[in-house]
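Page 47, continued from p. 46.
Same chain as before, 920 aa.
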Amino acid sequence: MKKTIATAISTACIISGYFPQMPAMANEPSLSHPGSAAAHNVQDYVCVDVEIRSPEGSVNVYSKIYMRQGDQYKNTLGESIAASYVEKVRQYAIESESNQAVDLAPFGINPQSVRKKVDEFLKSNTLPSIDPQKYPHPNFDQLDPAVRKLLDYDTVAHAASEAISHPFNTGYFIMHVYISGDRPVEMQSRHEGGGMVPWTVKVGSKVWQTASPQLPKMLADLGNNDFLRGKHADWFDQFFDRYSAKVRNQNWPSIKDREMVKQIAGWQNASKFVTVEDAINQNDTTLIQVKLKDPACTIDRIRWRVGKPGASGNTANMRDWNAFIAANEKLQHAASAVGWLLKWREQNPERSLMAMLDVAIDPADYFHKEMIAFWQDAGLSGQPTYHCRVYRNGTYEGGLLLGEPYQISLATEMIRHQWSLINKPDSDAFPALRDQCMEDVPFDQRKWCLLDQSGKIIKLGPPPLTEALPSGCEYPTAQDEPYDYFWPVDFDKAEDAEYLDRKIGNESIANCSPEFAPSLVGEIDKGGKPIFKPLYQFLGPTSEGMTVFRLPKGKNGYLNEAGDVAIDPQYDEAEAFHEGLAAVGKDHKYGFIDTKGNVVIPMIFDAVRNFAEGLAPARIGALFGYIDKTGKFVIEPQFGRARHFINGLAYVQNDWRRAYIDHAGKPIGGCFYEQLQRFSCDRAKFKQDGKYGYIDRAGRVVIPARYDDANDFRDGVAKVEINGVAKGIDIFGKSAPVPPDHSDFWAGPISEGLMDTTGSGKNAMSHGLMDRNGKFVIKPIYESVGAFVGGLCPVQINHKWGVIDRSGKMVIKPQFDETTRLFSDNRLGVKVGKKWGLIDVTGSMILEPKYDAIQPFKNGMAIVQAGIKFGYIDKSGVELIPPIFDAAHQFGPTGRARVKMRVEPVKAMDIWMEGEKGAD
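Result:
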C-alpha cells in the first residue's frame, strides 16, 4: 500500500470528473429547512481536500477544516491561515475567469530562455545527429531542419504547455478547496502526471476553467500543500531536462532516411501533394510514411515500401514515386466510395486514416485465418483489398480493412491498454514509423465487426474475453458486502472519495458487453422469463421491494417487484431504499423519498449517504453532519468526510485525521488518529505520532502505539515491525509466531486455510499453497494454482491443468488447456483447445467442450458464452437458457439475474470509435 500511494503522490491528474454543487449564494433563496446550514448558522470555514489515487485504483483522501476565529482560520493541528489571505484567494478565484489560456511566461518559458537552454544542451555535445568532428562546437543554425524544429521555441513551448496541463499518466492527484461565506467559492484540480493547470472554479451556479498558475500557488500555501507547491519550484529547468533527454533519445537515422527518399524517381511530382513524415532504410527496401496535403482526402496518410534500384523481386515493393501516385489515386477512389467513412471523417477534424498499402500485394502481412473465416462466414467473396489504421488526435485507435467493391468494411479494435509498442509523436518531426503498433496482437484478441455502406454493423466477431465476460459481476444488492470481520470503512477503495465523486456506484453490468454495442438491461428468472423486460439503460440494486431504473437518456424512477413503475422517472439521481427511505437528487441537490414517492426530506443538501441505524450523513457546503429521518441534523456538520453507521460506529475524517464516532457524534477513545483501519479480531490498527497500535471497539487502546509498522489481525495474529525486526503478536500484544505476508487483493483469497504463494530460490517463480502459519502444505512446483474447494484444487504443470487433493496427490491428471481455477457446485469448467466444457470431482466429462467460455456456478446456474452471446446451464450441463443475451449476470439468491440485449439500430462507428453509451 505504501508503494502504491508513493507512486500516486509522484503523479498528478487531468482536469475532469465530478464537481459538487455549491451552497446557495447570498443573492439566492436562503434555506429554511431544519437540516439546512442557515438553520444551524454554520461558522465560516475553509475546507481543503486532497485525494491521491494510484494506478491500481486505491485511494487516500485527506481533509483539513479551518474554522474562522477572529482574523484567523485555524484547524485542530495548530495550523492557521490569515483571514485576509483567504479573502485574497477568494477574490483572485472570482477574477480568474478571464484567464483561461495557459500562459507560459510565469513558468519561465519565453524565446530567450528556451534559446539559452538549447545552447546549453548543444554544448553538451550529446546529440547523436551531430557529427562532433564536423561541428565540435555546434550551434542551433548548424542543426538538421528536423532537429531545429524540435528545439525551436514553438515546439518546446507546445510541449511545455502539454506538460503543464495534461501529460499522460495513470495516477491521480486531486485538490479541492471550499471557502464558505456570503460568496462561497469552490476550486478543484484533477491532474495527471505533472499537470498544474487549469483549475475548475465555481461561484454559485457559475463554473469555469482557469489556467492561471497563480491560483495553484496560492492554494498550495492555503492548504500548506508541499506537493503542489513543489510543482512550481525550478519548473522550467526540470521540464527542459526531461525534454532534452527525449530529443537526445530519438532515432535520428530517420532524418537521413527522409532526405534519401526524396532522391527516388518521381519525387518532384509527388512533392506537390505529399509531405514525408518519416522513413526507415531497411536493407533492400525503404519504408515511407507520407501525409497528403489536400485536407479533402479521406485517407490522409499512407505507408508504403519502395525497392532499391537493382533489388531482386520483392513484390511487396512499389517501383518509385510514380507508382505510388498511381496507387494513391486508386486508393482515394476506393475510400470515397465508402459512405460511412466519409461522414465519419467529416464529423471530427481530429480523425485520421492511414493506408497500409494494397493488401493484395502481400496478404500474408495482414491476414489471419480467423479473419478470413469471419469474412467468408458473412457470405462475402474474395478478400479485403485495403488495410488502414485509424487515428484520433494522433492516437492509434484500431484497424480497418476495405473490401472491393468497397461496400463492405471490416473494422478491428485491438487490445492496447497493456501494450507499450505505440510511440506517440510529440510533433510531426518525431519518427512516425517507430510505433509498429499491434502487428503481433493475435487476431482472436481483437474486437471486430463488418460494416455496410451506411456504417451499420452487419456481423460481429467475439470480443476479447477480458472485455466481454461478466466474470466479476455479482448479483446486485443494496447491502454492504458481508465480511468475516467488522469493517466500517475500506480506506483503500474509491467509495470513500465521496466528496469529489458523490455517487458510490451501485453495481451494474455496463462493463460486461462489447463497447461498440450499447445495450438495455432487464432481469430474468431461471426459466428465462423476463421479470423486467430489457428496456432500461440502468437497473440499480433491488432493496425493500424497489428497484431503481433509468430509461434511455431519461430520468431515474423505481419499479416494484412485479416490474411495474411504482415511482415515475423524475430524478437526476436515485439510490436504493434503506430503512424505508431512498436518496434522490435533482439539479445537484439531494433529499429522501419514501416508497410511495413522497418527498420526506426536501432536496436541499449538497450530498447525502443512505440511512443506517436511523441516521444518514449529509453535507451542506463542504461539511458533513448526520440527519435523522425528519431531516434534522442530530450530529452537527463538522466533518470533511463521513460514512454511514455500521454496528454503532461511523468513520469520519477531519484535518487529515480519522476517527470512529458513536451515535452522539463523539469519537470513540476521545481522539482522532493519523491513520485508522478496519476492525479484525475486534482490533483496529491506528497510527499516532508516527507509531502504530491497536484499539478495541470501545476505543480503548489495548496495544499501545509502539510499532514502526503493523498489519491487520488475521486468525488472532498480526505481523508488526519494530527497529527493523518483524515479529508476531496476539490480540493482547503478546508474542506469537510471525504470520506470512498475504494480501487478499494481490494474492487472492485464503481458501480452506491455504493461500497461493510463490517459493524462493530455484522455486521463486513457482506456485504452491501455504497455510496461515507460513508452512507450505502444497510445495511450490506448479506454474499456477487455483483455490481449494471441497479438498480439491486445480494446478498447472507443464502447461496443462489437472487437479490435486490436500495431500498434493494428482487426482485428475493434467490434460486441460485452462480451467475456471476452482470447483463450484462440484463442477469445474475446463478448456480443451478453444472450447470449454464441464467435469465433476472425479474428472468425468459432464459437458463436452462446446462453449467459448464457462463461468463458475452460483446458485445452481453458470453463465456460458457462445460467440458473442451469453446463456445459462445447470449442474448437469443442460442448457436451460440458450445464449441469446449480449451480457449476463450471475443468478442471485432469489433466482433472478440481470441480462442485457443489444440496442438496434446501432450507430456503428460512433459507438466503436467514440465509446458512446446509451440507446440510439
